[in-house]
Every structure is written in structure tokens, then in C-alpha cells.
TrEMBL record:
Listed name of the protein: ABC transporter permease
Family membership: Belongs to the ABC-3 integral membrane protein family.
Main location: membrane
Organism from which the protein derives: Staphylococcus nepalensis
Origin superkingdom: Bacteria
Classification via Pfam families: ABC-3 (PF00950)
Keywords: Membrane, Transmembrane, Transmembrane helix, Transport
GO BP: response to zinc ion; transmembrane transport
Length: 287
């Protein structure tokens, strides 16, 4: 493993990208889960796939544009999808959750159309769906680094506003938190999803955003503790998943998600046993 990291550029790109993604995905995921928008990651990941497949289609009809990284089309589509979700949530004020399946359906439909037009499924598409150690290029890594900087700057500058928005959206309107911060937040979510797709895979990226939070919620009480622990869990799952995927020669996305699911199951089982033990001790004392 160490030899591969030293000798192959794509291995270094994948691991550096994984470490960065393992940090920003749970970080932004904490705000998403608290706002009860967990499914937005699924919707935007499918829109991102539509953008990437559109980029591949463009290259097939205009080979001169092959220098353009399809990831940029994915980012553009994800940002547009994120803004549409926010607009739909405003339009359907009493049924805000309907915005997510609408955009998700559109993303899946666009993906199916452009993948077909771009000569169907190939190894690159499969890698994007489920993640791939060899898929990350130096261009992808550079894009991911830029996105990480943007995400960190945004959270540091607007942490207080995001905290209020996440826990009480109505109160945020009363105290006059600008609407554009909410729009920027949804764009940041789109950027994080676009950054994560190469390593984790488009179909599994939402798990990396939500599962570390679900695990950390069972172990912490404060919001900052939740963020810190979820980032630690995210980093562990990504690094361990990449290592296991390398030795098993399989897609890393599935391994990362299975590790997170196992951690959640272990935590739930531990807490269940703990509750039963405490109840048993109380019953014994009563006797």
C-alpha cells in the first residue's frame, strides 16, 4: 500500500481527495441533517450525474472540447439543481419536501438521456456511480481543494447564521438573516456533493454526508461536538474504506458506506445493551 502511494500518482490523488472529502462531507452534513434535508444529497447527486453525462455527450459530438473536465458540467448542474430546490421549497411553502423528489426525478431522467446519447455505460460512468481509486485526476484533486477552501471559508464566516437557520428557520427570518445566505448554503452543498463523487460514487455520496452524523448523534449532545465527532468518523471510514478497497480490488464507495453502516449498527446495539443493563440494575435495586 505504501509502495503504491509512493509510486503511483493516482493513488496519492485518491487518498488526498479522500481525506479532504472525509472532512467536508460530514462537516456540511451536520447542517443538512439538523435541517431535515438529508435527501437533498440524493437529489443533487443525481443531478450531478446528469451534468457529467451531459459533458461526456458534448465531448462525443465535439471532440475539440475534450479538454473540458466533465466534472465542471456536474458542478454547474448541481448548482442549478440546488437553486431550483430552494425556489421550489419557497413556492410550495406548505409542502417543501416535494421539491427534492421533483429535482431528483429530473436528474435521473437527464442522466438516462445523456448516458444513452454518449454511447451508454462505460467504465468511467461505473466509477462515477460507485467510486473508483483510479478515477481521481490531478484536475479533479485541484477542483476538490478549491471546493474545500470555499466550504471552510463559508462555514467560518457564517457559522452563527447557519446554526440559527438549521435549528429554527422561522426565527432566522424574524431576526433578519439574509435570504442569500440560505441560497449560498445550498450551493455549498452542491459543491460538496460534486467533490465527493469521484471517491465515494454518486449513488453513495449521500451516505457519507448523513451516516457519520447519524452515528455521532447517538454519542454527543452539543452541536459542535456533533460536528467534530462526525468528521472523525467520516475520516476513519474514508481512509479505512480506501485501504480495504485497494487490497480487495473493488470500488471504495461501497466499502466506505458498509463501514459506516456497521459502525451505526454496533453503536445502536451497544446502546441497547447498555439500556437493558441499566434497567436490570434498577430492577434489582427495587427488589
Amino acid at each position: 500500500m505504501i509502495e503504491a502511494l509512493l509510486n503511483f500518482d493516482f493513488m496519492r490523488y485518491s487518498f488526498i481527495s479522500g481525506i479532504l472529502i472525509g472532512f467536508i462531507a460530514p462537516l456540511i452534513g451536520a447542517f443538512i441533517v439538523v435541517r431535515r434535508l438529508s435527501l437533498i444529497a440524493d437529489a443533487l447527486s443525481h443531478v450531478t450525474l446528469g451534468g457529467i453525462s451531459f459533458g461526456m455527450f458534448v465531448v462525443t459530438i465535439a471532440p475539440a472540447l475534450a479538454f473540458i473536465n466533465p466534472m465542471w458540467f456536474g458542478i454547474l448542474f448541481a448548482i442549478v439543481g440546488a437553486l431550483l430546490i430552494e425556489n421550489l421549497r419557497t413556492s410550495y411553502s406548505n409542502y417543501q419536501e416535494i421539491a427534492i423528489p421533483i429535482i431528483m426525478s429530473a436528474g435521473i431522467a437527464l442522466s438516462a438521456i445523456f448516458i444513452s446519447l454518449a454511447d451508454g455505460f462505460n467504465q468511467e460512468i461505473v466509477g462515477l456511480l460507485f467510486g473508483s481509486i483510479s478515477a481521481v485526476t490531478v484536475s479533479d484533486l485541484s477542483t476538490i481543494i478549491v471546493i474545500v477552501v470555499i466550504v471552510l471559508a463559508f462555514i467560518l464566516l457564517f457559522y452563527k447564521e447557519l446554526f440559527i437557520l438549521s435549528f429554527d428557520e422561522e426565527y432566522s427570518k424574524v431576526i433578519g438573516i439574509p435570504k442569500w445566505i440560505q441560497f449560498l448554503f445550498i450551493i455549498i452543498v452542491a459543491l460538496v456533493i460534486s467533490a465527493s463523487m469521484r471517491v465515494v460514487g454518486i449513488l453513495l455520496v449521500s451516505a457519507l454526508i448523513t451516516l457519520p452524523i447519524a452515528i455521532a448523534m447517538r454519542m454527543t449532545k452539543g452541536f459542535k461536538q456533533l460536528i467534530t465527532l462526525s468528521v472523525v468518523i467520516g475520516e476513519f471510514s474514508v481512509i479505512a474504506g480506501l485501504v480495504l478497497a485497494f487490497y480487495m480490488n473493488i470500488s471504495p464507495g461501497g466499502v466506505i458506506v458498509v463501514l459506516l453502516v456497521l459502525l451505526l449498527a454496533i453503536m445502536m446495539l451497544y446502546q441497547k445493551i447498555k439500556v437493558r443493563t441499566v434497567k436490570g440494575a434498577i430492577n434489582n435495586e427495587d427488589r
